[in-house]
Specification:
347 residues, alpha+beta, 16% strand
Protein backbone atom coordinates (compact mmCIF):
# COMPACT_ATOMS: atom_id res chain seq x y z
CA UNK A 1 0.00 0.00 0.00
CA UNK A 2 2.73 2.49 0.91
CA UNK A 3 4.65 1.76 -2.28
CA UNK A 4 1.53 2.00 -4.39
CA UNK A 5 0.04 5.18 -2.98
CA UNK A 6 3.04 7.12 -1.68
CA UNK A 7 6.02 6.28 -3.85
CA UNK A 8 4.52 6.18 -7.32
CA UNK A 9 4.97 9.41 -9.24
CA UNK A 10 1.98 11.72 -9.54
CA UNK A 11 2.07 13.05 -13.09
CA UNK A 12 0.19 16.22 -12.20
CA UNK A 13 3.01 17.28 -9.83
CA UNK A 14 5.65 17.25 -12.57
CA UNK A 15 6.02 21.04 -12.63
CA UNK A 16 5.52 21.03 -16.38
CA UNK A 17 2.71 22.16 -18.63
CA UNK A 18 1.34 25.60 -19.60
CA UNK A 19 1.76 28.40 -17.03
CA UNK A 20 3.48 25.96 -14.64
CA UNK A 21 5.23 28.80 -12.78
CA UNK A 22 1.86 29.85 -11.34
CA UNK A 23 -0.61 27.01 -12.02
CA UNK A 24 0.45 23.83 -10.23
CA UNK A 25 -2.30 21.70 -11.70
CA UNK A 26 -5.66 21.79 -13.42
CA UNK A 27 -8.35 19.19 -13.18
CA UNK A 28 -11.96 18.30 -13.65
CA UNK A 29 -14.69 15.99 -12.40
CA UNK A 30 -17.86 14.48 -13.83
CA UNK A 31 -20.67 13.42 -11.48
CA UNK A 32 -22.95 10.61 -12.66
CA UNK A 33 -25.65 8.45 -11.08
CA UNK A 34 -27.38 5.24 -12.14
CA UNK A 35 -30.94 5.89 -13.22
CA UNK A 36 -32.61 2.99 -11.39
CA UNK A 37 -31.05 3.31 -7.92
CA UNK A 38 -31.27 5.94 -5.16
CA UNK A 39 -28.34 8.29 -4.53
CA UNK A 40 -25.66 6.76 -2.24
CA UNK A 41 -26.86 8.68 0.82
CA UNK A 42 -30.27 6.99 0.53
CA UNK A 43 -29.17 3.58 -0.77
CA UNK A 44 -28.95 0.31 1.15
CA UNK A 45 -25.73 -1.66 1.36
CA UNK A 46 -27.12 -4.15 -1.17
CA UNK A 47 -27.86 -1.32 -3.59
CA UNK A 48 -24.38 0.14 -3.08
CA UNK A 49 -22.83 -3.27 -3.79
CA UNK A 50 -24.96 -3.37 -6.92
CA UNK A 51 -23.53 -0.02 -8.02
CA UNK A 52 -19.97 -1.21 -7.40
CA UNK A 53 -20.49 -4.39 -9.38
CA UNK A 54 -22.01 -2.57 -12.32
CA UNK A 55 -19.47 0.25 -12.47
CA UNK A 56 -16.48 -2.07 -12.16
CA UNK A 57 -18.03 -4.34 -14.78
CA UNK A 58 -18.41 -1.38 -17.15
CA UNK A 59 -14.73 -0.52 -16.67
CA UNK A 60 -13.49 -4.00 -17.60
CA UNK A 61 -11.78 -4.46 -20.93
CA UNK A 62 -11.00 -0.80 -21.62
CA UNK A 63 -7.36 0.23 -22.00
CA UNK A 64 -7.74 3.44 -20.00
CA UNK A 65 -8.66 1.43 -16.90
CA UNK A 66 -5.89 -1.19 -17.14
CA UNK A 67 -2.96 0.63 -15.52
CA UNK A 68 -4.36 1.18 -12.05
CA UNK A 69 -5.77 -0.34 -8.85
CA UNK A 70 -9.14 -0.38 -7.11
CA UNK A 71 -9.42 0.11 -3.35
CA UNK A 72 -12.44 -0.42 -1.12
CA UNK A 73 -12.34 2.71 0.99
CA UNK A 74 -14.14 1.29 4.03
CA UNK A 75 -11.42 -1.39 4.30
CA UNK A 76 -8.56 1.13 4.43
CA UNK A 77 -7.00 2.39 7.64
CA UNK A 78 -8.20 5.89 8.62
CA UNK A 79 -4.67 7.21 8.08
CA UNK A 80 -4.68 5.96 4.49
CA UNK A 81 -8.10 7.50 3.83
CA UNK A 82 -6.88 10.85 5.19
CA UNK A 83 -3.88 10.55 2.88
CA UNK A 84 -6.18 10.05 -0.11
CA UNK A 85 -8.18 13.15 0.86
CA UNK A 86 -5.02 15.22 1.35
CA UNK A 87 -3.75 14.14 -2.03
CA UNK A 88 -7.20 14.96 -3.42
CA UNK A 89 -7.55 11.50 -4.89
CA UNK A 90 -10.93 11.18 -3.17
CA UNK A 91 -13.32 13.85 -1.95
CA UNK A 92 -14.09 14.57 1.72
CA UNK A 93 -17.63 13.38 0.91
CA UNK A 94 -16.27 9.92 0.18
CA UNK A 95 -14.34 9.89 3.45
CA UNK A 96 -17.54 10.78 5.36
CA UNK A 97 -19.76 8.37 3.43
CA UNK A 98 -20.80 5.02 4.87
CA UNK A 99 -21.20 1.59 3.38
CA UNK A 100 -19.61 -0.13 0.37
CA UNK A 101 -17.58 2.41 -1.60
CA UNK A 102 -14.27 2.51 -3.38
CA UNK A 103 -11.93 4.29 -5.73
CA UNK A 104 -9.99 3.23 -8.80
CA UNK A 105 -6.66 5.08 -9.17
CA UNK A 106 -4.49 5.12 -12.25
CA UNK A 107 -0.84 4.32 -11.66
CA UNK A 108 0.16 7.93 -12.37
CA UNK A 109 -2.62 9.19 -10.03
CA UNK A 110 -3.87 11.54 -12.75
CA UNK A 111 -7.16 9.68 -13.24
CA UNK A 112 -9.55 8.30 -10.65
CA UNK A 113 -13.03 6.81 -10.53
CA UNK A 114 -14.84 7.23 -7.21
CA UNK A 115 -17.81 4.96 -6.61
CA UNK A 116 -20.50 5.60 -3.98
CA UNK A 117 -19.27 8.87 -2.55
CA UNK A 118 -21.86 11.65 -2.78
CA UNK A 119 -22.82 10.30 -6.22
CA UNK A 120 -22.66 6.81 -7.66
CA UNK A 121 -19.76 7.72 -9.95
CA UNK A 122 -17.32 10.61 -9.91
CA UNK A 123 -14.65 10.71 -12.58
CA UNK A 124 -11.61 12.89 -11.93
CA UNK A 125 -8.70 13.86 -14.18
CA UNK A 126 -5.73 16.04 -13.24
CA UNK A 127 -3.00 17.54 -15.39
CA UNK A 128 0.18 19.50 -14.74
CA UNK A 129 -0.05 23.23 -15.38
CA UNK A 130 -3.07 24.95 -16.92
CA UNK A 131 -4.27 22.29 -19.34
CA UNK A 132 -8.08 22.20 -19.33
CA UNK A 133 -8.27 20.81 -22.88
CA UNK A 134 -6.47 17.61 -21.89
CA UNK A 135 -8.61 17.34 -18.76
CA UNK A 136 -11.88 17.52 -20.68
CA UNK A 137 -10.71 15.19 -23.45
CA UNK A 138 -9.83 12.43 -20.98
CA UNK A 139 -12.98 12.94 -18.90
CA UNK A 140 -15.24 12.91 -21.93
CA UNK A 141 -13.66 9.72 -23.29
CA UNK A 142 -14.10 7.89 -19.98
CA UNK A 143 -17.68 9.17 -19.66
CA UNK A 144 -18.51 7.89 -23.14
CA UNK A 145 -17.11 4.44 -22.40
CA UNK A 146 -19.06 4.07 -19.15
CA UNK A 147 -22.19 5.69 -20.59
CA UNK A 148 -22.31 3.09 -23.34
CA UNK A 149 -22.83 0.41 -20.69
CA UNK A 150 -24.46 2.20 -17.75
CA UNK A 151 -27.80 4.03 -17.82
CA UNK A 152 -27.02 7.36 -16.17
CA UNK A 153 -29.82 9.40 -14.60
CA UNK A 154 -30.72 12.16 -17.07
CA UNK A 155 -33.59 14.64 -17.26
CA UNK A 156 -34.55 16.21 -20.57
CA UNK A 157 -34.85 19.66 -19.01
CA UNK A 158 -32.21 19.61 -16.27
CA UNK A 159 -29.56 17.29 -17.67
CA UNK A 160 -27.58 14.80 -15.58
CA UNK A 161 -28.96 14.41 -12.06
CA UNK A 162 -26.75 14.64 -8.99
CA UNK A 163 -27.06 14.43 -5.23
CA UNK A 164 -25.74 18.01 -5.22
CA UNK A 165 -27.97 20.69 -6.75
CA UNK A 166 -24.88 22.62 -7.89
CA UNK A 167 -23.83 19.69 -10.08
CA UNK A 168 -27.15 19.09 -11.82
CA UNK A 169 -26.77 19.78 -15.54
CA UNK A 170 -23.54 18.68 -17.13
CA UNK A 171 -22.14 17.48 -13.81
CA UNK A 172 -18.85 18.95 -14.98
CA UNK A 173 -16.57 20.65 -12.48
CA UNK A 174 -13.35 22.30 -13.66
CA UNK A 175 -10.58 23.78 -11.53
CA UNK A 176 -7.08 25.20 -11.50
CA UNK A 177 -4.75 25.31 -8.49
CA UNK A 178 -2.72 28.52 -8.61
CA UNK A 179 0.02 30.13 -6.55
CA UNK A 180 -1.13 33.75 -6.23
CA UNK A 181 1.61 35.13 -4.00
CA UNK A 182 1.73 38.52 -5.74
CA UNK A 183 -1.99 39.13 -5.33
CA UNK A 184 -1.89 37.84 -1.75
CA UNK A 185 1.02 40.11 -0.80
CA UNK A 186 -0.87 43.02 -2.41
CA UNK A 187 -4.05 42.14 -0.44
CA UNK A 188 -6.07 41.71 -3.63
CA UNK A 189 -7.22 38.08 -3.44
CA UNK A 190 -10.52 38.89 -1.72
CA UNK A 191 -11.37 41.41 -4.43
CA UNK A 192 -10.57 38.83 -7.11
CA UNK A 193 -12.73 36.32 -5.25
CA UNK A 194 -15.70 38.69 -5.36
CA UNK A 195 -15.24 39.20 -9.11
CA UNK A 196 -15.08 35.45 -9.64
CA UNK A 197 -18.32 34.91 -7.71
CA UNK A 198 -20.12 37.36 -9.97
CA UNK A 199 -19.19 35.24 -13.01
CA UNK A 200 -20.31 31.94 -11.49
CA UNK A 201 -16.95 30.83 -10.10
CA UNK A 202 -15.28 30.52 -6.74
CA UNK A 203 -11.77 31.13 -5.46
CA UNK A 204 -10.96 29.11 -2.34
CA UNK A 205 -7.84 28.65 -0.27
CA UNK A 206 -6.33 25.21 -0.74
CA UNK A 207 -5.69 24.90 2.99
CA UNK A 208 -8.35 27.13 4.50
CA UNK A 209 -10.42 30.27 3.92
CA UNK A 210 -9.42 32.77 1.26
CA UNK A 211 -8.93 35.36 4.01
CA UNK A 212 -6.14 33.27 5.54
CA UNK A 213 -4.53 32.26 2.26
CA UNK A 214 -2.16 29.71 3.77
CA UNK A 215 0.70 29.15 1.37
CA UNK A 216 -0.85 31.61 -1.10
CA UNK A 217 -2.39 28.57 -2.81
CA UNK A 218 -5.88 28.99 -4.25
CA UNK A 219 -8.31 26.81 -6.17
CA UNK A 220 -10.31 28.48 -8.94
CA UNK A 221 -13.41 26.55 -10.04
CA UNK A 222 -16.88 26.86 -11.55
CA UNK A 223 -19.82 26.82 -9.11
CA UNK A 224 -22.68 25.55 -11.27
CA UNK A 225 -23.25 23.32 -14.27
CA UNK A 226 -26.96 23.81 -14.97
CA UNK A 227 -27.70 25.61 -18.22
CA UNK A 228 -24.06 25.70 -19.31
CA UNK A 229 -22.45 23.38 -21.80
CA UNK A 230 -19.08 21.76 -21.19
CA UNK A 231 -17.60 24.09 -23.80
CA UNK A 232 -18.98 27.15 -21.99
CA UNK A 233 -17.59 25.95 -18.67
CA UNK A 234 -14.16 25.51 -20.23
CA UNK A 235 -14.26 28.87 -21.99
CA UNK A 236 -15.39 30.75 -18.89
CA UNK A 237 -12.83 29.18 -16.56
CA UNK A 238 -10.05 29.67 -19.10
CA UNK A 239 -11.01 33.35 -19.43
CA UNK A 240 -11.12 33.85 -15.65
CA UNK A 241 -7.81 32.08 -14.96
CA UNK A 242 -6.07 33.87 -17.82
CA UNK A 243 -7.11 37.19 -16.30
CA UNK A 244 -5.93 36.06 -12.86
CA UNK A 245 -2.55 35.08 -14.28
CA UNK A 246 -2.15 38.48 -15.91
CA UNK A 247 -3.05 40.20 -12.63
CA UNK A 248 -0.65 37.97 -10.71
CA UNK A 249 2.24 38.71 -13.07
CA UNK A 250 1.59 42.46 -12.83
CA UNK A 251 1.46 42.22 -9.04
CA UNK A 252 4.80 40.39 -8.98
CA UNK A 253 6.38 42.97 -11.26
CA UNK A 254 5.13 45.77 -9.05
CA UNK A 255 6.45 44.10 -5.90
CA UNK A 256 9.82 43.67 -7.57
CA UNK A 257 9.90 47.28 -8.74
CA UNK A 258 8.99 48.63 -5.31
CA UNK A 259 11.16 46.34 -3.20
CA UNK A 260 13.48 43.95 -4.99
CA UNK A 261 15.78 43.71 -1.98
CA UNK A 262 12.88 42.86 0.33
CA UNK A 263 11.81 40.05 -1.98
CA UNK A 264 15.35 38.70 -2.15
CA UNK A 265 15.52 38.79 1.64
CA UNK A 266 12.22 36.93 2.00
CA UNK A 267 13.36 34.23 -0.39
CA UNK A 268 16.80 33.96 1.17
CA UNK A 269 15.41 33.64 4.68
CA UNK A 270 12.97 30.96 3.53
CA UNK A 271 15.79 28.97 1.92
CA UNK A 272 17.87 29.23 5.08
CA UNK A 273 15.06 28.00 7.32
CA UNK A 274 14.15 25.20 4.90
CA UNK A 275 17.75 23.94 4.98
CA UNK A 276 18.21 24.23 8.72
CA UNK A 277 14.89 23.79 10.56
CA UNK A 278 14.47 20.95 13.04
CA UNK A 279 10.84 21.71 13.93
CA UNK A 280 8.38 22.95 11.32
CA UNK A 281 4.66 23.48 11.76
CA UNK A 282 2.46 23.04 8.70
CA UNK A 283 1.48 26.70 8.38
CA UNK A 284 5.14 27.75 8.50
CA UNK A 285 6.03 25.09 5.93
CA UNK A 286 3.40 26.50 3.57
CA UNK A 287 4.78 30.01 4.01
CA UNK A 288 8.30 28.79 3.23
CA UNK A 289 7.13 26.96 0.12
CA UNK A 290 5.31 30.05 -1.10
CA UNK A 291 8.44 32.16 -0.71
CA UNK A 292 10.63 29.56 -2.40
CA UNK A 293 8.21 29.15 -5.28
CA UNK A 294 8.01 32.92 -5.74
CA UNK A 295 11.80 33.09 -5.66
CA UNK A 296 12.05 30.37 -8.28
CA UNK A 297 9.55 32.10 -10.55
CA UNK A 298 11.29 35.48 -10.23
CA UNK A 299 14.75 33.90 -10.62
CA UNK A 300 16.00 34.88 -7.19
CA UNK A 301 16.88 31.20 -6.73
CA UNK A 302 17.52 28.49 -9.30
CA UNK A 303 18.45 25.55 -7.06
CA UNK A 304 14.96 24.10 -6.76
CA UNK A 305 12.58 22.85 -9.45
CA UNK A 306 8.82 23.29 -9.55
CA UNK A 307 8.55 19.52 -9.31
CA UNK A 308 10.42 19.52 -5.99
CA UNK A 309 8.26 22.35 -4.67
CA UNK A 310 5.02 20.70 -5.83
CA UNK A 311 5.87 17.32 -4.32
CA UNK A 312 6.92 18.90 -1.03
CA UNK A 313 3.65 20.87 -0.85
CA UNK A 314 1.72 17.62 -0.65
CA UNK A 315 4.32 15.56 1.23
CA UNK A 316 4.36 18.05 4.12
CA UNK A 317 0.73 17.36 5.03
CA UNK A 318 0.02 15.40 8.24
CA UNK A 319 -1.34 12.18 6.77
CA UNK A 320 1.43 12.07 4.16
CA UNK A 321 4.02 12.25 6.92
CA UNK A 322 2.16 9.67 9.01
CA UNK A 323 2.10 7.33 6.02
CA UNK A 324 5.88 7.57 5.73
CA UNK A 325 6.31 6.88 9.44
CA UNK A 326 3.80 4.04 9.32
CA UNK A 327 1.67 5.22 12.21
CA UNK A 328 -0.30 8.20 13.46
CA UNK A 329 1.89 10.93 14.92
CA UNK A 330 1.47 13.70 17.49
CA UNK A 331 2.11 17.32 16.48
CA UNK A 332 5.69 17.34 17.78
CA UNK A 333 6.61 14.27 15.75
CA UNK A 334 4.93 15.72 12.67
CA UNK A 335 6.92 18.95 13.07
CA UNK A 336 10.14 16.98 13.37
CA UNK A 337 9.39 14.80 10.32
CA UNK A 338 8.32 17.83 8.30
CA UNK A 339 11.59 19.59 9.10
CA UNK A 340 13.48 16.43 8.12
CA UNK A 341 11.62 16.46 4.80
CA UNK A 342 12.57 20.09 4.12
CA UNK A 343 16.22 19.60 5.03
CA UNK A 344 16.54 16.54 2.80
CA UNK A 345 14.78 18.28 -0.09
CA UNK A 346 16.37 21.73 0.00
CA UNK A 347 19.88 21.15 1.36
Amino acid sequence: MLETLLEKKARWLSGEGPEADIVIESGGTLARNLADLPFPGQASDDELHNVLDRVLGAMEGHDIFRAGQFFMVEHLEPRVVRFLVERRLITPDMERARGPRGVWLSDDQAFSVMVNGRDHVRLQVRSAGFNVDEVWTRLSHADDLLGNVLDFAFHEKYGYLSASVSEVGTGFGLFALAHLAGLAMSNRVLAESEKARESGHRIEGLFGPVSEGLGDMFTVANTATLGRSEEEIQFNLRHLVTGLLESERRARQQLHAEGARALEDRVGRAAGIARGAHLLEFSEALSLLSSLRLGRAMEHITDYTYKQLNKTLYAAQPAHLAMRVGQDCDELTLSMKRADLFRSTFS
